[in-house]
Amino acid sequence: MSARFEEIDWQPTPMGDISLRRRRDPSSGDDVYEVKLGDEFLMSSLFTAGEIALTGLGLAELPDRRLDVAVGGLGLGYTAKAALDDPRVDSLIVVDTLAEVIDWHRRGLVPLGSRLAGDPRCRLVHGDFFAKIADADGLDPDAPGRRFDAVLLDVDHSPRHVLHPSHAALYRPAGLRALADRLRPDGVFALWSNDPPDEAFTSVLAEVFSRAQAHVVDFDNPLQGGTASNTVYVAGR
Q: Cα separation of 52 and 78, whole Å?
């Protein structure tokens, strides 16, 4: 049995100090992995329904063919793992601005790390997703201008609550047009948000894409009791 609490890793980063912690849930006895950036909780393995739904709702919009998928934000790997679980996915590239998070996966410090790092379809790329979207070379450093069937994004808390001011431009029409240029003609963009559906942002999506919808994902909240929810936006060309 693991210790009741352990700080597995701590590293300074340009965005603040990041830490990976593991604690034992007193009610279930399971290990819970948590990531903090400074004093802010970024993610927990206790709450993964939204991250998994991001992939499921996004890829559900695509036809039955071999798929090339890009994910912005590695986190604890649940969005990426859900993509690899889809038998249509031929290749997956995951871009994360924090080399430390990628290193946790490659070292097997997080539960899904070995699964992602060991899958030949999956590449973990260190880089700024938001800067790469704006750059002509795009998301894949080995294939400038490459386009994808789906781009799935889970980095900021929501389009209105971003982790860094430089991210905000992506959620405006010009930024979304640049992202749409990274998609194949019938491709899909899906975005995770911790906030309720934002009609104003859905309208901005609809300016750029031919269709846009906000899905509410409900899940049990064992910490506070009752039900919590995330939002997944899905937009198609």
A: 6
How many CA atoms lie within 13 Å of 16's alpha carbon, on the beta-carbon side? Answer: 12
Output the six-digit token pair for 126: 């260190």
Dihedral angle of Cα 56, 213, 216, 21, to the nearest 10 degrees: 60
- For the chain, domain boundaries: 47-236
Contact predicate 104/98, CB 8 Å: no
Residue type, 65: R
Structure tokens at 164: 């860094």
Is pLDDT of 1 > 60? no
Give the CATH superfamily of 47-236. Answer: Vaccinia Virus protein VP39 (3.40.50.150)
Residue 219: which of 228, 209, 210, 211 has the closest Cα?
Answer: 228
47, 155, 157 from 34: Cα distances, Å: 10, 15, 16
pLDDT digits (tens, 9 = 90+) for 37-70: 888 888 899 899 999 999 999 999 999 999 999 9
